[in-house]
Amino acid sequence: MPPRACAACGRGRSARASTTRARTRSLLALGRIQRRAKKWGAARESLTRSAAAFDRLGSPGWADDARSELQRVGARRASPAGELTPAERRVAELAADGLANKEIAQALVVTVNTVEYHLRNVYAKLGVRSRAQLAARLVAPSRGK
Fold this sequence. Notes:
Distance between the termini: 63 Å
Number of domains: 2
Structural class: mainly alpha
Number of helices: 7
Helix content: over 70%
Oligomer: single chain
Order of helices and strands: HHHHHHH
C-alpha cells in the first residue's frame, strides 16, 4: 500500500523518497549481479538506469558507484593500442607508487592473480620491464612513442 500523504508533516513525500532510494540501490545491486553472471546487456541497462536515478536523487557517490560498475561491463571492448583500461591504470599507478602486488590486491579488493594479470598487460602495452620503468613511463607518457 503506498504511503499516505500528510499535508501537515510531509511524511508521504519522505516515504516516497526513501522508497525510491531503496529501489535505486536494488537496481544497482541487480546490475552488479547481472554483470557477475555475464549478462552484459541486462547489466548495462540496470546500471545505466541506476546511475541516472541516483543523479536525479542528488546522490553523486551512489551514481559514481553505478558508473564504475558500468565501466566494468564495457571494459570488454578493445582499447586503442597502448591505451590502458581503467583497471590496468589503477594497478599501474599503485605499482608505480611502490606498493607490492599483495598490497595492491588489498587496496583494490581483488586477488593477487588479478593484479599480476593486469601488470603483465600493462608491461606489454607500455613496453616496460620493471616498476622503475613503469613509474617513469606513467610520469612521462609521451616518451617512447
